[in-house]
Design goal:
Number of domains: 1
Shape: globular
Structural class: alpha+beta
Number of strands: 9
Distance between the termini: 37 Å
Strand order of the largest sheet: 1-4-5
């Protein structure tokens, strides 16, 4: 087992179990990748999730002291990511056995779906152009393409990940 830092998916073992027998080519590629590559995809997916306009606030206050986060309420949790989270004064998920907040399962599923989408679309030049706001391009006068307004402006590449995150996002999404 290889632990993943700064990811909502904790390890290669957890990732591979979540992928299971998913038949999508990108899921198979992610499952077969080296643990270091799996960790990179999960960290990137987590980074994109944390960049969303999330409702509420972190469970642990984000105090930074001398370049590292401190455990302000002495519960053993030093939070570096946006989840666990409290929304409207309610902690999103709670582990009664440890009496600590946990990352919601929907957030882990969103992380998985976004990692699979990154594998699938990661090297797409068209997606990169769209995310940079390019509206149209042409190649040698023989090929041209025009993108619809707003294409590529979504923070998450995976529509399924966006659906999983809907209850945590502070704006209306389709």
């Amino acid at each position: 087992m290889t632990a993943f830092s700064n990811s909502y998916i904790a390890s290669d073992t957890e990732l591979e179990a979540m992928i299971g027998d998913d038949p999508r080519a990108a899921a198979i590629s992610l499952k077969a990748a080296a643990a270091s590559a799996q960790a990179w995809y999960c960290r990137e997916a987590t980074r994109r999730i944390d960049a969303l306009p999330l409702r509420g606030g972190r469970y642990e206050e984000p105090y930074i002291e001398n370049g590292s986060q401190s455990d302000v309420n002495a519960d053993g949790l030093i939070q570096t990511l946006e989840f666990p989270r409290s929304i409207d004064g309610v902690t999103c998920d709670w582990d009664n056995g440890t009496s600590l907040p946990i990352v919601p399962e929907l957030v882990k599923l969103a992380c998985l779906e976004e990692a699979i989408a990154i594998v699938s679309f990661g090297s797409s030049g068209r997606l990169s152009l769209q995310s940079q706001g390019v509206k149209s391009y042409s190649i040698g006068g023989k090929l041209s393409e025009t993108f619809r307004d707003g294409a590529g402006s979504e923070v998450l590449s995976s529509p399924q990940a966006t659906r999983y995150m809907r209850r945590y996002i502070g704006v209306v999404t389709r």
